[in-house]
Amino acid sequence: MIPVLDARRMRAADRAAVRGGIASARLMENAAEALVEELLRAGPVEGSVVAVCGPGNNGGDGLAAARLLAKRGISVAVFTLGDPEAYRGDPARNVARARATGLELTSLSRRGAGSDLARALAKAGTVVDALFGTGLTRPLTGRAARAVEAINAAGCPVVAADIPSGLSADTGRLLGPAVRAFLTVAFAAAKPAHVFWPARGFCGRVVVRDIGIPTRTLLSRAGDLALAEARDISAWLPARPADSHKGDFGRLAVIAGSRGKAGAAVLTARGALRAGAGLVTVFCPASIEPVVVASLPEAMTRGLPEEDGALARAASSALREALESFDAAVAGPGLGTGRGTVRVVEELLAAECPLVFDADALNAFAGRARRLSRRRSPTLLTPHPGEAARLLGTTGAAVQKDRLAAVTKLARASGAVVLLKGAASLTAAPSGRVTVNPTGTPLMATAGSGDVLAGAAGALLSGGLNAEQAAIAAAYLHGSAGERLSRTLGDAGLLARELADTLPLARRALREVPEEEGTMGRPWNPRQ
Asked: What domains sit in the chain, N to C, each tagged with a CATH number?
């Protein structure tokens, strides 16, 4: 996992590294080298590079990067927010080194410098944003705000040093005017702004680069927030030996569907099978069993007593007995919230197998999240913001305003692992540990997508992963499948069954060719 550190923790890690013998100037030089390497890796530089540097260490990173680019024969124009003579410490040394390389530094405090910046940006092929880093706590105003507006108006690719200027490192909220980057090179660790929306949308592709701070130092300062990483998930997926059989890969029960919502049961089972479950049985109202069989013959079915097209309370005894032979179960997609169905769901609390509660199984406990803590077996909740709000007795807007607080509160109240769906889905353990999912695309905002995810999580749970691992891995694979489909479909028009059917390809890519370490988002070339 990649640790996600807020500004205070990151400063503590920096100081600890310096106390341990790593010169602060070396850390700044390493950051500049990483910035230049990622800028050049994105594609050939066309035209000049404009580096806009602020007054602190982030500005020092930009000055060092400008010097390194100039040494490579690239034309670089450097603008500083204030007087270059006002720099102190390591940034001041980089002012001197930049000038020794032959670079001219133009202060934006000089009359007419704003017009000079606009002209330079008009001729630029790339912009290096090094105005402000993780220390910013208030909205940008004056020259800084005007510089940000000029950078955004230029329309050329922006590479941000550590964090796009104008964002608060510690939240996903916007402080005010902020740079929109195509690429952000995060130094040493990801920051909350890199993973939480809407700030995440200003970062473009995020690459986390080592700048020399020892991993043990970062981990010792890290809190309970981390970013899911391909190599960890790949290591969790169980091997599938040549002499194995279907029973080795999990027996999963899917308790889903009602009249008019048979598709939810089908999609959940399809997601489970495509995610690797060996055997899947759908438990549903008897009247929709033929629809499930016809739509997905690979799944087994069992019709249960119903009332008005939904499960009746009389289904509980048969279901409770049947679950004894399953490795895990998924309950909720398309079930409905009639009185009899709610009683069936409530009695699932006593089931001994691991359970995924999704959709209407969550709605059955609206305002009663603490009742879920009665379960003694592993439990995974997979709410979208509205369902999380109903469980917590609040509003969807309140959940979205602080997703981290909401998912942590729900995990503690329910005693369960919680996967809060949405952009940058969050998996929270009751201990307070939270993992952010970096994969996904707006293409996945379509009916049935959540059913597929619930099925995938159930498959991984039945295959031997614990509830936290199953949630993290399912979210990662689900998002990766969506990203693969977006390459041909764009950002709309996905059918949820297509998402399920792409899960094996996402899994194969994860196992055989792990994605680049420390990268969030698909590779892209901003100059294409």
From this structure: 2-222 (3.40.50.10260), 232-236+245-512 (3.40.1190.20)
